[in-house]
Write a structure and sequence with these properties.
Shape: globular
Structural class: mainly alpha
Largest sheet: 2 strands, parallel
Radius of gyration: 25 Å
Number of helices: 22
Order of helices and strands: HEHHHEHHHHHHHHHHHEHHHHHEHH
Strand order of the largest sheet: 1-2
Helix content: 55-70%
Oligomer: single chain
């Protein structure tokens, strides 16, 4: 009950900060000064927002069903069937646009831009999987996310990724999240949507580079389980942290563990942790010294990361259209390039002063410098905490699914002999 109250309080605060409004016409028609009259439609106008609320209801129902199938029914086949439905509905039918992953940017923009009012449906898309993760673990990843589903379907011969490599690759997701926040907060780009590797597949058309990027992820996904979800997904970062606090979680065996190790071999995501009953005193002493040293190094990593983020402001600021335009206009004005681009030609046609453009670009670069401190400090903090995390020793007596890493796919259920015994018992009772 306390966790639920805390969740409601957090949601209320977020809504009040962001500003929420029902879906509305984002781009109103222009005001014509001539005698132009808008034609009357010959067919009735579609009802705005109907599909959005249907999508929200389907998302809620899918999350509820996924939680039931993972935690109560414990059926890989049923989870797989729901995953296929989610891929068809949220992916190909809704073109991947009903996406809590991309909704991160809408929430960030609403926080940093007071003029932007985020539609309530977007807030629902963003919050629902997080709330479910807080109570039931990563059930959104299990069978609802179309990005995860399309990767899961192509997984044929999974190979094990060494833990040291997996921990290193996972840092990319945190950096990606930090960059997404940086570029959205500065009004530069919606990075997550721009480089969504599978949106072109869902639209059955799109940028050739994105198609190649998505194809590369799927080829890697033939052998490495869900590479985008595990190593790049920015929304997965949030789900990981909330899943650590989940009230209920995936349990591999319905009762006692017989340590047959079959579950560990069946997991393609490296999410099964082996038993660690005790640690030799020599290794325990080394672990304590390592953690103490890393605690001293942590502030250095934060400050060093912040300085690196600040130093990269000349590079990161080029993501902003005004900065790119100012650089191009400067090259044209100084005669270092010949000709104009569409953007620079449009600027020269406005008759605006070049000095003002340069001043605007300088102000944007300064903001990137300030925000770069925060981004770099965040990256340094993540690296430091990751090093401390891998140095900690946790006592485990049985094989367990890691709360943060487990994608609740249900594969381990089928390999557990105690699960087979439970199913046989249920069949006997039904008979």
């Amino acid at each position: 009950m306390v966790r639920f109250c805390h969740t409601i309080i957090c949601v209320t605060i977020l809504l009040s900060i962001c500003g929420v409004a029902p879906a509305a016409e984002r781009f109103p028609p222009p005001e014509f000064e001539s005698s132009y009259e808008r034609p009357t439609p010959v067919t009735p106008a579609p009802s705005h927002g109907v599909y959005e609320y249907i999508d929200a209801a389907v998302l809620l129902g899918s999350l509820t069903l996924s939680s039931y199938l993972v935690l109560r029914r414990r059926s890989r086949r049923a989870i797989f069937a729901l995953m296929v439905f989610s891929l068809l509905y949220f992916g190909f039918w809704r073109k991947g646009c009903i996406c809590p992953v991309g909704a991160i940017q809408n929430i960030i923009l609403a926080i940093f831009d007071s003029s932007y009012v985020v539609p309530i449906v977007i807030v629902v898309f963003f919050l629902l999987p997080l709330v479910f993760a807080l109570f039931f673990g990563r059930v959104f990843c299990a069978a609802v996310c179309p990005l995860g589903a399309i990767q899961d379907l192509v997984l044929l011969r999974p190979v094990s990724v060494p833990s040291w490599l997996e921990n290193g690759l996972r840092l990319f997701a945190y950096v990606y999240l930090g960059l997404a926040v940086l570029f959205t907060a500065t009004g530069s780009a919606f990075l997550v949507c721009r480089y969504d590797p599978f949106v072109a597949f869902f639209h059955l058309s799109g940028n050739a580079n994105i198609l190649v990027l998505g194809g590369c992820f799927l080829v890697v996904g033939l052998f490495v389980g869900r590479p985008y979800c595990r190593f790049f997904c920015p929304y997965g970062v949030l789900l990981r942290q909330l899943s650590r606090l989940s009230r209920w979680r995936v349990t591999i065996t319905p009762d006692e563990c017989v340590r047959c190790k079959l579950c560990e071999n069946s997991c393609p995501f490296g999410a099964i942790r082996e038993p660690l009953a005790e640690l030799p005193m020599r290794d325990f002493g080394r672990s304590k010294k390592t953690i103490g040293l890393l605690m001293l190094v942590l502030p250095v990593l934060v400050i060093g990361g912040g300085w690196a983020g600040f130093s990269l402001r000349m590079v990161t600021s080029r993501m902003h259209a005004t900065v790119r335009l100012a650089e191009r206009v400067y090259l044209e004005e100084t005669g270092k390039v010949v000709g104009t681009t569409n953007e620079s030609q449009a600027f020269w046609g406005t008759g605006k002063e070049v000095k003002q453009l340069y001043a605007d670009a300088s102000g944007i670069r300064a903001r990137f410098g300030r925000d770069g401190w925060l981004f770099g400090g965040f990256a340094g903090l993540v690296v430091g905490l990751k090093l401390i995390g891998v140095s900690l020793w946790r006592r485990r007596t049985d094989y367990e699914a890691d709360r943060a890493s487990c994608l609740a796919c249900g594969r381990c259920f089928e390999y557990c002999p105690k699960e087979h015994a439970r199913l046989q018992k249920l069949k006997g009772q039904a008979g």
